[in-house]
Design goal:
This protein has 6 helices and 4 strands. The chain has 148 residues and is an alpha/beta fold. The protein has one domain: Rossmann fold. The radius of gyration is 15 Å and the shape is globular.
Length: 148
């Protein structure tokens, strides 16, 4: 199985604290370019987070790949502390445990998928989580070792 892990396009929140998570013009250009590139891929399904920025990205990809779009809240972003990020003031109690359990459960689901090629559109931290699991690396691997 080939899994294409895709992070949503750039949002205002990526550029400034407390900004809305709406796509920027650059983010819209990013998803258009990605959709154009993926139109030559043989994708069996697109599975996406239900959050607007990921959903818009997935729908753009779907325009060129006439396949099922599966929308799930299970792919929402996870708390950055899980993958070695810094704590965030004001985080709800039990978020670490709840988000980690959700990500672990979804990782188990991925293992039994019957797709040959699937695009998964979601968010940066959960992508880092899945990559760490796939590589059998510590969950903080990408925060400690990844360099842009």
């Amino acid at each position: 199985m080939n899994i294409y892990l895709i992070r949503h396009g750039e949002t205002e929140a990526n550029l400034a604290l407390n900004a809305p998570a709406t796509l920027t013009d650059k983010g819209k250009r990013q998803i258009d370019a990605l959709a154009q590139r993926l139109k030559t891929y043989s994708i069996d399904a697109i599975i996406t987070s239900n959050q607007e920025r990921a959903l818009l990205t997935a729908k753009e990809i779907q325009k060129f790949n006439n396949v099922e779009l599966i929308i799930t809240e299970e792919l929402q972003e996870i708390y950055r502390l899980i993958i070695g990020g810094k704590p965030k003031e004001g985080t709800r109690p039990n978020r670490f445990e709840e988000d980690k359990a959700r990500a672990e459960d979804y990782w188990k689901q991925i293992q039994i998928w019957k797709y040959e090629n699937v695009a998964v559109v979601c968010h940066g931290n959960i992508i880092k989580f899945f990559l760490s699991k796939a590589m059998d690396a510590p969950l903080n691997y990408f925060n400690n070792n990844y360099r842009k």
